[in-house]
Every structure is written in C-alpha cells, then in structure tokens.
Amino acid sequence: MSSDLHSSQLHQHLQMYIRAKWSFWGTLIVGCGLLFLGATQKPDSKPWILAASVGTLEVGRRHRQTAKLLEESLGDIDQASRLNFQAWARANTQPTAQLALSFGALDTNWQPDNLITDPVEYIQKKQKHVALVGGTGDGKSTFTQYLSSKIGGRVVVYDSDAKPDDWSWLDQKDVIGCKGNFKAIDTAMGKDLEILEELVQLRGEGGDNAIAGRERFLIAEEFPTLVDECDNPPHWIKRHAKRGRRYKQFVCVLAQNDTAENYGLQGDKDTLYSCFCLVRLGQFGRDYARTKLKDPQLEQWLKAGGKRRFLVDDCPCELDLSNWGTGSAAPDISVGTSEEVMVPPSGMNEYEQFILDWGQQHPGEVLKAAHLSRATRLFDNMQPDEIRIFFVSMADRGLGEVEGNGDRLGWRWSK
C-alpha cells in the first residue's frame, strides 16, 4: 500500500501514529491492572474499580483503531524507504562502485589469491575422494575422465542413463547400469563392498605390496537416483569414504546438489566434508561464491571463465579441458597471456560463442552490451555489466579487443 500524504504531512502523521500506538499499550496495561485490583478488593468498591478498568480498555481500543488508520494512511514506509534508498544507491554509485562496471587494469587482470591450476594435486594432497556437483552441460563427464586418467587404476562407471558413446573410452563391461538397469548397479556395488573387505584382509596380512595392481577409480553418476533406486549405495559410499583411499579404491560421486542427504549420508554431514573434496561446476560454483563465500568478485570471475573455471572446496580453479580426449594437450589459457593463446570454439560457453560469431560476421564494428540485449534473447537475464565482463575476458584471451571504458565499453573482432 502506498501513502497519499504530502511530504509536509508525513512527520506529523508519523508522530501521531507513534503516540496512538504507545497510548494503546499503556491503557491496556492500566486496564489489566485495574481488573486485577478489583478482583482483590472489598465488594462495595469492586463496581467502581471494574468500571474504571472497562473505561480504560475502551479508550485503549479507540487508540488502537486510530493507530491502524494512521498506519494505512502512512503506507508501508519501511519498504518504500528501502526501495528509495536502493534506487538512490544505484543512481549514485554507478559505474565506479560496482564490481562489474570497474574495468580498469585491476579488474580485468584480477585473479584469486588461492587459485589452483592442478585439482588432482590438490585432491591427492588432501587424501580425499571427490563429490562432483554440476548441472547438465557443465562438463561433469569430461572432468571425471580427466580425473580418472590422472589418478589411475581400473575405471568403473555406474550410470543408469549412459548413452553408447558417453564412456566410449572405457571397456563397456566396466560401464554398469545402462538402460536403467539399477539391479546391475546394486549388485556391482555389493560386490565392491566385498572387494573392499578382501583388500582389508590382504593388506593386513601382506602390507601395501599385497594390494598392488588392485587400484580402482569408481564413478557413480547421479548418485541421488542410485540412492532412491538401490539398496547398497548408502553403505557403499560410507564404507569407501572412510576406508577406500587407504586401499586404493578412489570414489567420485556426481550429483546436482551438495547436501549430505543427496549422497545418502543423512545426518552425517561430517563424512561428506571430511572425506570428500567438493568440486562445484557452472552455476553451482557461482552460487556458492555468492551465498557461502560472500565474494561477488569471485562469482563474476567464475562466470567470465565459463566451463574452465570452477571451485574445488573453497578454492577457485582454472583448467581448460576443451581439448581433453582429442589426442592433444589442453592449452594454457591463463589470464593475461593474450598474444599467442587461442581457445577453440569448443572451449567457449554459449555467450562467448554468440559474441564471437557476431564479431566475425561484422568485422570492424563495435559491439555494445545494449545491442546484444536487443539482438537475442540469450542475454535476457543478464545485466549489461555482466555482458561487458565477457567482452573483457575474451579480449584477455586474444579473441577480439575492447574499446572504451565503464558503461561505454564495447568489443570488436580482431585477429
């Protein structure tokens, strides 16, 4: 509800509202006190005290009605104040006070202090398994392939939704559960638990040499679904989380949420965080940076890097896997090396790809954020500040160049 009061009347009505509200509470307390007093007095004085109490309560009721009417006439002052302040702040702090509009050297070349470029080294140093959180198209399968190749051991995949070419680099007998065969997954996970117990016995009798060559890398896709459909996954993850690493049974579980319940660890959040490194890809990493780490600059940095930037626990990571599995090493795309680095289109996100296509079709023309917002619905939910971050990020990697500063910054294609 909005107020129809003129600004000159606002203070007077506010004072009246405060007085009426406090008067109501005062009369309520006095009236209740008189009622209590009347109940304890002699019969000849009770009628007078009770009458005074009723009269006091009636006055309080009228003040309460007055306070309500004044509150309606004032409107929702608190909400209006917040909205007006936010509008004032936006009008008076752009472009210099907002992260996304500050495109000086510090922002365009900014990198996190705790940046890691080798997630496998980090994971192995922590002596933990991996819980991988990501949505469709965030590169979960590519990242698990990269992990398995670096960590080593026989790779076994549990994937009820696997397509014929999803795990073509593996022996297909090690891809279990295709076509929704949850029974096969449940049986195989039960066998894993038996293997783990067997390794415990072997190592106890002959030491580490007795289990040499028995290393395995176990990948469980969409683990919450496996928990819902099978009996063994909750026992499987708990046993491997606490003992698997010691016996060279490395586990990577994939989900679209990082809660303990999603991994079949109800009420056991400590196991998730003490035994697993949490790798957050795509939007999950950006949301974590914003809501948990309270770091909007890190959020924008992750967004500008697309799939190649993500979080490993609380540490930002930059790793280009666009060429992984194609027979060539992944290129080095560190920020700030823009002369010889070339990122193939397959390593770009959909926003960068659209910008690049536009630039190649309009050589020499400067592309502005406002133009993109009008040209395609792809950028409908994106602020101009965020679009300009893509311009700067692409220019840093040798894909075009930027022109102008602040809200006048644009991008154009150049070889």
Number of helices: 15
Task: Provide the spatial order of strands within the biggest beta sheet.
Answer: 3-2-4-5-1-6-7-8
Q: What structural category do the secondary elements indicate?
A: alpha/beta
Percent of residues in beta strands? 5-15%
CATH architect. name of the largest domain: 3-Layer(aba) Sandwich
Give the CATH class of the largest domain. Answer: Alpha Beta
Briefly note the CATH topology name of the largest domain: Rossmann fold
Strands, total number: 11
Q: Could you tell me the radius of gyration in angstroms? A: 32 Å
Sheet with the most strands? 8 strands, mixed
Order of helices and strands: HHHHHEHEEHEHHEHEHHEEHEHHEE
Q: What value does the average pLDDT take?
A: 78
Instruction: Give me the CATH superfamily of the largest domain.
Output: P-loop containing nucleotide triphosphate hydrolases
Shape, principal axes of CA atoms: flat
Number of domains: 3
State the helicity in percent bands.
40-55%
Helices and strands, with pairings:
Layout: H1 7-40, H2 46-74, H3 77-93, H4 105-108, H5 119-126, E1 129-133, H6 140-151, E2 154-158, E3 175-176, H7 182-206, E4 216-220, H8 223-229, H9 233-243, E5 249-255, H10 269-275, E6 276-280, H11 282-291, H12 296-305, E7 309-312, E8 315-318, H13 350-361, E9 367-368, H14 369-375, H15 384-396, E10 401-403, E11 410-412
Parallel strand pairs: 1-5, 1-6, 2-3, 2-4, 4-5
Antiparallel strand pairs: 6-7, 7-8, 9-11, 10-11
